[in-house]
Amino acid sequence: MALPALLSAQKSAYRHYYRGAMYYGEGRYGQAEGQFQQAVAQLPGNFHFTTAYGLALSRNGQHEKGRQMLQQAAGYVTPKDPEYNTKMAARHFFFGMANLYQNRAGQAVAPIKRAIALQEKMDGDGRKLSIYYNALGYAAVLNQGEGSHKSAGIAPHFHVHKRDLVRAAALFEQSLRYDATNAVALHNYRMLADTLGLEMAPFVVRADSVARKRLLEPVFNEMPAKIDRTLQLGDFEEVLFLVDISGSMVMEKVVCLNQDRFDVMKEMALYLTERIPPSTRLGLATIGGDCEKTPMKWMAAGSISHAEMKQELRFLFPDGTTPLLTMLVKAPELLSPSDSVRKSIFLISDGENVCRIGGLDICEWAAGLAGRNITIHVLTFLDAGLENTGAFAEYTCLADHTGGKIVYIDNYHCSTELFDFNLLETCRLTLPTLQRSDCWGSAAKELWSIFPE
Q1: In whole angstroms, what separates CA 245 from the centre of its chain?
Q2: What's the mean per-residue pLDDT of the chain?
Q3: Which stretch of DSSP H or E encloses residue 160?
Q4: Using an 8 Å Cβ cutoff, are 316 and 243 in contact?
Q5: Sheet of 154-161: strands edge to edge?
Q6: Do 380 and 349 meet the contact criterion of CB atoms below 8 Å apart?
Q7: Domain residues of the chain, as ranges?
Q8: Do domains 3-217+431-439+443-451 and 222-413 have the same CATH topology?
């Protein structure tokens, strides 16, 4: 495919990928597979699209083809890729998941362990490692050989010994140490703790109590604090806040706070500004007005102090529509031209681009930033649902091409969630039913039965 045609296909491919991810999360695996297949056809060579397609094929029973796609994805990543180890860890994990989908728990253990080793060696991403360890615990319980046992009047089932359940409980505990909010790991841990009569680890009890309190008493500061930990804006030498001041930001509310998006946006930006190191050069640009209008604020990184930045944010007011592409294309002029300077554009918005520049697409523009050391992070007030496919396709293009992240706000629970480019969030496996077994007589006192779904 020629380069212009390739670039023009990108946004369509990302739309298919986004729809596929939504369908997959809803359990509509056949439709997800079709969307991923179209994404791969339109943009071959994309690691995320190929692994998603491979996982969907495996989930739908096409195990060999799924494994081939996952193997093929490895060829789309080179050691020069800054996310090489992260991607390879995800690929190993998906190989493990493909084996679990094929009821080959024993063969799932090794690739999941490789994924854990890679991820722990790199950055110790707690959310990912929690999912990995939960899957490993699940595999440890289900790794009970081939075939199911049948007894008179009892449904087909597998047998599992106490030692396997104890080992799995330790893995679920480790999952919770990495992310105490992992509800599925907590469920699995509680099930085994109750089954075995184990005393729950104190940190799990405390974490569960804190999580419940936050659900009942949302605290605004926890949202920007989590954004700060996720995006780590302080690691950059220059940060340009590119904020949406369009009219829709005041027309919609963050329900749990009973505040409009515009005020919440300003409060979050102020909070993050206070926590960015003084040595970081800050800039501010606005998205508003219309496609031809001069931005209300257009301040280069380093042209204002942190104190001046906070003052500018406090006195922003809403204006016009969402000329997102127009402002994005111009935004790099506010950053250092040096490719050795680590720079970030932090986009805060609640909408999809309404402007076009000579047919230029956001995906095309983002692809051109690869060598300029500019990372685009996105904070959006939009729900990650099918109704916002267009906007999230654009956000994904921006972040995927520049190594950035997308965070969206859960308007009803006062929380911020990371939108990933893969299907890790769908891989939170829940243990099937367990019950004591007497199939082997009274001599086998530490035996349980597993009834697969």
Answers
A1: 26
A2: 84
A3: strand 154-161
A4: yes
A5: 149-151, 154-161, 447-451, 433-436
A6: yes
A7: 3-217+431-439+443-451, 222-413
A8: no
Query: In this structure, are residues 406 and 399 in contact, taking their beta carbons and an 8 Å threshold?
Result: yes
Per-position b or e across 323-356, b if 16+ CB within 10 A of its CB: bbbbbbeebbebbbeeeebebbbbbbbbbbbebe
Of residues 361 and 118, the one with the higher pLDDT is 118
Q: Which residue has 């804006």 as its token pair?
A: 233
Single out the residue of 179, 202, 176 nearest to residue 189, CA to CA: 176
What distance in Å separates the CA atoms of residue 167 and residue 324, rounded to the nearest whole number?
51
Cα separation, 36 vs 49, in Å, equals 6
| Confidence bin at 49 (pLDDT 50/70/90) | very high
The torsion angles phi and psi of 436, rounded to 5 degrees, stand at -60, 145
| Per-residue model confidence as pLDDT tens digits over 324-333 | 778 888 899 9
Pair type for strands 238-244 and 343-349: parallel
One DSSP character per residue, 82-111 reads: TTHHHHHHHHHHHHHHHHHHTT-HHHHHHH
CATH superfamily of 222-413: von Willebrand factor, type A domain (3.40.50.410)
Q: Please tell me whether the overall predicted TM-score, pTM, comes out greater than 0.85 for this model.
A: no
State the distance between the two ends of the chain, measured CA to CA, in whole angstroms.
Answer: 44
Question: Exposure of 176 by Cβ count < 10 A (0-12 exposed, 13-18 middle, 19+ buried)?
Answer: buried
- Superfamily the domain 3-217+431-439+443-451 falls into: Tetratricopeptide repeat domain (1.25.40.10)
CA 113 centroid distance within chain: 21
